[in-house]
Design the sequence.
């Protein structure tokens, strides 16, 4: 990887502008998510009471419902600057700017074989795309895991891209093999640190192993790949082992990851209801009207879309189950089993819908939502006339963000055309696809979970500046092909 001298002239102004953008979001649009109090309480209790857990009925109990990475980050800031959130926001702004620099490093690595003028265009485009991206900058103003997870994921991607420079077939000397596996170990270590923040981070390591095993799949390389895999796995487990040991000692069970539903040990989760919603839910707003109201908030049948029912008889069954849930202020086991039965019946009737169309729709919404969730705008644009009349300013912001999403995706598609010139492109594309596919199988649609892919996506998009007329690149962006997609792509 070589950064050109002319690029360094752009670096400081770009970082200064990027810091200003993040301060703007911090000053004008600070946000506190529903998950924020959990992370803050864990950090406070860990720092001031020495217990990683929550207070309940006046007693402090240890917990494992959240991974400890982000609370540790908060506790460090609290120890240095007190309990105010502004210090957290500013620290996250600097972490996000570090991610921007890593984005440039990735872009430069992908363009390693290009001439210096082309590399200069690519790295310049990458730094400005990264620092001016409002979707990542906005999350500096909310106490959530996204900024820290994105940094660690981007760092790991850059480390693994270093492997693309190795000619594995030519490694004969012990010292060369040691350097090779050392990169794998370092990458696995960073993935392990990322896992302490978000439990799905090992998907990146799984993607890397898949891509590079396929790339170097020859008997002469099997021993080297096996050694690299073991070293990467060791790196992954190294930071997770103390967490698992703590859970074994304090809670009586060895657990490397937090529970899937962030539940307390012994809780019975409404998995049947989750399975039913997965047969029709593709918008995040539907989660707020149904899934997030569990375990006891009332749920209205009128909040469900027509696609949640295949017949009037099915709608009546759901109405009866919801009436029982609202009356008892909780999901009884029998009711949950009935929802599981409904899910099974719907999937049996329309397997393509459940296994193909709903995941595709979820992926489209996660990637092409306007991402106004942290801003005082509804994020609704459909129908267009209603969106404009209700709030012209909000309509313009939402439309601008939606088009910006399409711009980033279009640039990335253009950059991916150069995959023959850079084998690292395959790694980034595979990671985005695999992570997105995984996210479509969660109980809700959370567009913020794809944010960790954005730096790599922007680095891929910067490859579009290989063209001699980069100002024409936006004209090449493909148009979304289906009318159906346009009806939900602008909703969150």
Sequence:
């Amino acid at each position: 990887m070589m950064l050109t001298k002319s690029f360094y002239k752009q670096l400081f102004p770009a970082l200064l502008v990027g810091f200003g953008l993040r301060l703007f979001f911090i000053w004008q649009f600070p946000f506190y998510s529903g998950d924020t109090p959990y992370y803050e309480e864990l950090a406070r209790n860990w720092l001031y009471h020495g217990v990683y857990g929550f207070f309940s009925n006046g007693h402090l109990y240890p917990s494992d419902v959240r991974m400890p990475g982000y609370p540790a980050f908060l506790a460090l800031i609290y120890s240095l600057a007190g309990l105010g959130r502004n210090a957290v926001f500013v620290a996250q702004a600097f972490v996000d700017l570090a991610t921007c620099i890593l984005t440039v490093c990735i872009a430069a690595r992908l363009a390693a074989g290009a001439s210096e003028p082309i590399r200069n265009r690519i790295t310049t485009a990458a730094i400005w795309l990264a620092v001016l991206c409002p979707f990542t900058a906005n999350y500096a103003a909310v106490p959530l895991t996204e900024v820290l997870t994105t940094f660690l994921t981007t760092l790991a991607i850059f480390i693994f891209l270093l492997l693309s420079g190795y000619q594995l077939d030519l490694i004969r000397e012990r010292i060369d093999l040691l350097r090779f596996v050392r990169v794998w170990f370092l990458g696995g270590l960073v993935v392990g640190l990322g896992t302490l923040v978000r439990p799905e981070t090992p998907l990146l390591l799984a993607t890397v192993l898949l891509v590079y095993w396929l790339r170097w799949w020859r008997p002469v390389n099997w021993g080297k790949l096996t050694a690299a895999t073991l070293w990467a796995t060791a790196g992954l487990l190294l930071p997770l082992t103390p967490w698992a040991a703590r859970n074994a000692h304090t809670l009586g069970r060895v657990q490397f990851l937090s529970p899937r539903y962030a539940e307390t040990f012994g809780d019975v989760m409404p998995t049947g209801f989750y399975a039913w919603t997965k047969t029709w839910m593709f918008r995040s707003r539907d989660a707020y009207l149904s899934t997030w109201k569990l375990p006891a908030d009332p749920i209205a049948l009128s909040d469900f879309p027509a696609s949640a029912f295949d017949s009037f008889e099915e709608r009546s069954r759901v109405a009866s189950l919801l009436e029982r849930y609202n009356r008892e202020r909780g999901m009884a086991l029998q009711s949950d089993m009935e929802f599981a039965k409904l899910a099974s019946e719907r999937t049996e009737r329309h397997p393509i819908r459940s296994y193909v169309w709903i995941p595709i729709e979820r992926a489209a919404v996660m990637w092409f939502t306007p991402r106004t969730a942290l801003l005082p705008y509804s994020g609704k644009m459909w129908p267009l006339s209603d969106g404009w009349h209700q709030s012209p300013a909000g309509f313009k912001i939402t439309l601008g963000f939606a088009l910006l999403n399409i711009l980033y995706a279009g640039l990335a598609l253009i950059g991916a055309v150069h995959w023959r010139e850079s084998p690292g492109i395959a790694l980034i594309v595979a990671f985005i696809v695999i992570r997105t596919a995984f996210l479509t199988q969660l109980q809700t649609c959370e567009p913020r979970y794809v944010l960790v892919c954005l730096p790599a996506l922007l680095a891929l998009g910067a490859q579009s500046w290989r063209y001699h007329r980069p100002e024409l690149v936006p004209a090449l962006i493909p148009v979304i092909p289906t009318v159906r997609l346009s009806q939900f792509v602008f909703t969150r």
